[in-house]
Specification:
Blueprint: H1 2-14, E1 22-24, H2 55-63, E2 69-72, E3 76-79, E4 95-97, E5 101-104, E6 111-114, E7 123-126, E8 131-139, E9 142-143, E10 153-156, E11 159-168, E12 171-172, E13 179-182, E14 185-189, E15 192-194, E16 197-198, E17 205-209, E18 212-216, E19 219-221, E20 224-225, E21 232-236, E22 244-247, E23 250-252, E24 255-259, E25 263-266, E26 269-273, E27 276-278, E28 281-284, E29 288-291, E30 295-299, E31 302-304, E32 314-317, E33 324-328, E34 331-333, E35 340-341, E36 346-347, E37 352-353, E38 366-367, E39 373-377, E40 385-388
Parallel strand pairs: 1-2, 2-5, 3-6, 4-7, 5-8, 6-8, 7-10, 8-11, 9-12, 10-13, 11-14, 11-15, 12-16, 13-17, 14-18, 15-19, 16-20, 17-21, 18-22, 19-23, 20-24, 21-25, 22-26, 23-27, 24-28, 25-29, 26-30, 27-31, 29-32, 30-33, 31-34, 32-35, 33-36, 34-37, 37-38
Antiparallel strand pairs: 39-40
Length: about 425
């Protein structure tokens, strides 16, 4: 897919910007389209020969064309400079997307959309579907009025995919330091949310609604919320709304002043597989906090070195019997006396607790057992992971029936000869050690 996108991008650079529905941006200036909107042509400076295509002008034109449009951005810093009063037509301030569009950069390390110079966020998606942001960085957006949400991106009643995107240093005076999504569907793949901040909930991401969130191979680090959910705050519109699916992700050094240093789930369910939580901090639920009617399915996940006054690994505050937590092949290696605080976990086996608060009681469960872990670092894969060091009791100690075939790095789970029970391939946690 990456090779295909690169070929399309190279082809677009050689094509005419006037091709209806396809726009190649060739200026970093933040200027409006001066040609009639809806004519398939963008030119922001009529005094210059040829067509000067800006990002804002291309979005304006795409907003007025039928069907799905595509915008290609080369490497560079695309600074938003047209500040002004709040409006929703992409004329000033944030980039309002009102129609189906794909926006592709040349890579998150080379294409930057920067909102430092304006008093607004970067993108606003409203009532649109099949939208994509790919291979770019969204940074330094802000909502500078109390109660405004989504420091980097605001999504309302929309479908949005983010592929190989980074959101960094965005700030919200309300919810969602990087992204605030309401009544929308989000799909993340290889996305990084780094160093974002919310004055309310969701330092990285705030999500509320029934459509759902899926995140695969994503990295949430250094995000902060003054309320709930340092990395992610996820709330359903009602019980039974679409759950959040997290797979192959890492949450590190996120902070919530109230609960859910890494992940806060409210009135919904979360399915968490091959995920690492490390050094997240909150008053309650250093790694994960669950409140109201909630469900959590935790599988081959590592929770290590997270901190909280109550529930350094997981804090659970539920209001009725519909709530549940299932834990399989997972490591709890946080503050020993408060790894878990709540009404009780249901173990499906193969878990490790460095203390004794989780109450693991099924075959293969280990309590009061140090896991012997390395530090969070790059061990291959999209996000950093925590290595099982030689001699770790978690090696070849998982339950193969429930374990995924691959670990967080997409390395196959293997049986190491002479270690653990004979015939057991799966290690406990998100990391599979490949050598004795």
């Amino acid at each position: 897919m990456r090779a295909l996108r690169s070929a399309l991008f190279a082809s677009a650079l050689c094509s005419s910007a006037s091709a209806t529905g396809t726009f190649t941006v060739n200026t970093t200036l933040d200027m409006r389209d001066l040609t009639p909107l809806g004519d398939g042509v963008v030119d922001v400076d009529l005094s210059e020969p040829g067509m000067q295509v800006s990002l804002r002008g291309a979005i304006e034109e795409a907003n007025n064309l039928a069907g799905l449009d595509t915008i290609f951005l080369p490497a560079g810093i695309f600074a938003l400079t047209l500040d002004g009063d709040r409006e929703d037509e992409c004329a000033r301030g944030d980039l309002d997307v009102l129609n189906h569009v794909e926006i592709w950069g040349a890579g998150s390390g080379t294409t930057f959309i920067d909102a430092l110079a304006i008093s607004d966020r970067v993108f606003h998606f409203r009532d649109v579907y099949n939208c994509v942001l790919g291979d770019l960085t969204v940074r330094r957006g802000s909502t500078r009025t109390a109660g405004q949400h989504g420091g980097g991106i605001l999504v309302k009643n929309s479908e949005l995919q983010l592929l190989r995107v980074e959101l960094s240093e965005n700030t919200s005076r309300g919810r969602g330091g990087a992204i605030c999504a309401r009544d929308s569907e989000l799909v993340f793949s290889q996305v990084r949310l780094l160093g974002n901040e919310a004055r309310s909930d969701g330092g990285g991401l705030y999500f509320k609604g029934q459509a759902g969130l899926s995140a695969n191979e994503c990295y949430f680090s250094g995000n902060r919320a003054e309320g709930y959910g340092g990395g992610i705050y996820y709330a359903g519109g009602q019980w039974g709304s679409a759950p959040v699916h997290l797979e192959g992700c890492t949450f590190s050094e996120n902070r919530a002043e109230r609960s859910g240093g890494g992940l806060q789930v409210w009135s919904n369910a979360a399915y968490v597989t091959n995920v690492t939580f490390s050094r997240n901090v909150a008053t309650r639920g250093g790694a994960i906090a669950l409140q109201n009617s909630c469900g959590l399915d935790l599988k081959n996940t590592t929770l290590a070195r997270n901190r909280a006054d109550k529930g350094s690994g997981i804090f659970e505050d539920v209001t009725n019997a519909r709530s549940w937590i299932y834990v399989t092949n997972s490591i709890f290696a946080n503050k020993r006396v408060s790894n878990y605080r709540g009404d009780g976990l249901i173990s499906w086996g193969g878990n490790l607790d460095n203390g004794h608060t989780c109450g693991f009681d099924q075959a293969g469960d280990l309590e009061d057992t140090p896991p012997i872990l390395g530090l969070l670092r790059d061990n291959g894969g999209w996000a950093p992971t925590i290595e099982l060091l030689a001699g770790s009791p978690a090696i070849d100690a998982g339950d193969d029936f429930y374990a995924p075939d691959w670990d967080q790095r997409h390395l196959r789970r293997v049986d190491l000869p002479g270690i653990g029970p004979k015939g057991i391939s799966s290690d406990i946690g998100a990391f599979e050690r490949q050598t004795p």
